[in-house]
Amino acid sequence: MKAIVCDQFAPVESLQYRDVEEPEPRSGEVRITIEAIGVNFPDGLLVEGSYQAKPELPFTPGVEFAGIVDAVAEGVTDYAIGDRVIGVSDHYSAYAEKVCCAVERLMAMPKTMPFSDAASLVLAHGTAHHALKQRGQLQPGETLLVLGAAGGTGLAAVQIGKAMGARVIAACSTDAKLALAKANGADELINYQTQELRGELKRLTDGKGVDVVYDPVGGAQFDTCARSMAPYGRLLVIGFASGEIPKLPVNLALVKEFAAVGVFWGAFVRRDPATFATNMQELFGWYEQDQVRLHIDQSLPLSRAAEALRRVLDRQVNGKLVLVPDAVAQR
């Protein structure tokens, strides 16, 4: 079978698309013929050796996928050959034509959900959901600021914030990105390239400040947000898509009485699978009610994975980018 292989930690352009041995499911696993793969920012960081974890080389990147079960290990009763499933690999390996996955990291696909949506829902929306619900304790009527609001996880936060009853302020670097955030439910828009973010936040909140900030970007905007928090606010640290890890001005946390809250979705899934499963059922419900939807920027063949990752790392994707096995792309 074909797969993407990372032989060394290096720029994503060094990835190889080549034949590898087809995996066999071990105890507690099933094998899935992949129909679609979600491309995520951490995938590129893993390849380049910049992520918190460093897999043993060589490895196949990729975590979230959707497909059809084609083999079941002895003793597995939860899934059968032919089942349509969503998976979150616990040992990467999703950038391939087939993957083996532990049954506890699989979910049955909603019947009406396309494979491209299924492969894109878990990480971005799962991260935003966990961040706003468990970590941010977002309440109806509160003000939520989403930075990078047109990216995969930013757009998810806009949608989920609205589903949870918040007033959502979307901040992006272009008017086109803001238009996408508006189409997905944002109440207020700030272009932080042409508008002064702190002044706009003060105006939009009547000087009170922001209750919850969702920040997957980092960089200079983090400091601005720290200076724009409401009392008892929660500044959610999601990631650093800007490439710059900011410093926390702890004196501001003291005088403004806000909390900086870390969000590490992968650790949450491993630590609390029951809550993760409950979250996913709520997400599926919002999807069926059209409160949560997937904006697929582009679908590319698996052989073009390096190109897909470069676009994601360079922040050139609105919503999500999906890979499909080359044979699927040719249907």
Automatic annotation (TrEMBL):
**Record CDD domains:** QOR1
Report the SMART domains cross-referenced here. Answer: PKS_ER (SM00829)
SUPFAM superfamilies hit by this protein: GroES-like, NAD(P)-binding Rossmann-fold domains
Pfam families in UniProt: ADH_N, ADH_zinc_N
Residues in Enoyl reductase (ER) domain copies: 10-323
Example of a GO MF term: oxidoreductase activity
- Transmembrane residue ranges: none
Protein name stated in the entry: NADPH:quinone oxidoreductase
